[in-house]
Specification:
Layout: H1 2-15, H2 22-35, H3 57-60, H4 70-86, H5 93-103, H6 106-116, H7 128-141, H8 146-169, H9 187-198, H10 202-216, H11 236-247, H12 250-260, H13 286-304, H14 306-309, H15 313-323, H16 332-349
Helix pairs in contact: 2-4, 2-16, 4-7, 4-16, 6-8, 7-8, 7-9, 9-10, 9-11, 10-11, 11-12, 11-13, 13-15, 13-16
Amino acid sequence: MKIITSIFLLITTSCFSQELTLSQANHLATLPIKCLQQEYPNKLSQLLIDSTEIQSPKVLHPAFYGCFDWHSSVHGHWSLIFLLNKFPNLENKEEIIKKLQINLSKENIQTEINYLNKTHEKSFERTYGWNWLLKLQLELETSNESFAKELAQNLKPLSDLIIERYIEFLPKLLYPIRVGTHANTAFGLTMAWDYAVYSKDENFQNSIKSNVKRLFSSDKNCPMSWEPSGTDFLSPCLEEMAIMERILPKNEFLKWLKDFAPQLFLKNFNWEVAKVSDRTDGHLVHLDGLNFSRAWNFYHLVNQYPNAFSHLKKVADYHFQFSLPSVVDGNYEGEHWLASFALRTFEEKSKIK
């Protein structure tokens, strides 16, 4: 078994960055398949009002109880939809669809809505899980698979509730949260923006745009040399760059970026990868995710502005390839979520012409 895994890692490292093959997709799909309905171990982010609220993860979150925590379950679902959309002949396709249909049933989504509608749970998964949920909604709505259309309809009421929460919350956020973990404000808006654009929701777009400008427009000289912090899986500087790129016109964005991160314009720009000292530590392994998220942001920038930033592709490739083997290293601390980050990176890389 160790020999087989080693061979896969060698193939993955050399080939994945060029093109995601069916065999690699099949292997990466096994990770969310395995944990999608695995209830334990589980980390509940729950506020208890009284003892009646002490329930099992599956009772509390029948749609998103697997993969260790709610948000990891959400992007595990996204990973499988993404792979089915890219590879119609994916192995175990029927098993995957059956699990998705069970988890994302109308009844289960209503239970998730009921949970979020508790007065004391209005901030549940704000905004990291919200962001990934809208990514899942977008993947379902853009799928050509017949089963996905039904699941998109099932999920839509929860997505609509999340959009309402965003619009209610953003004006109250007087200062952005700039950490490299779940609460990062900029990351919590990127995929939400993508869905707002796709769905032609002008009210949602205006809410995101006006608040992003308020929070970030005056920022200059982001301290990239301070990154990473010890358990980052997001780059505060690059995530801010990513949301500003989405909401600003080209010339305005490039002008802002020259003040915010002028080093990115240097043809010899380089950034050392983040290194993990212990991949059995669930927090330290976050740094593999940082390498992936840096890579997907660089790929996105290269795709949008190839003339100005094509030199960043090699930096992205370096980060991508460095952490890719950790996706399949057998440690659940990373396995339950890193496949999603690797696939998110591939998604952005594949858009480069």
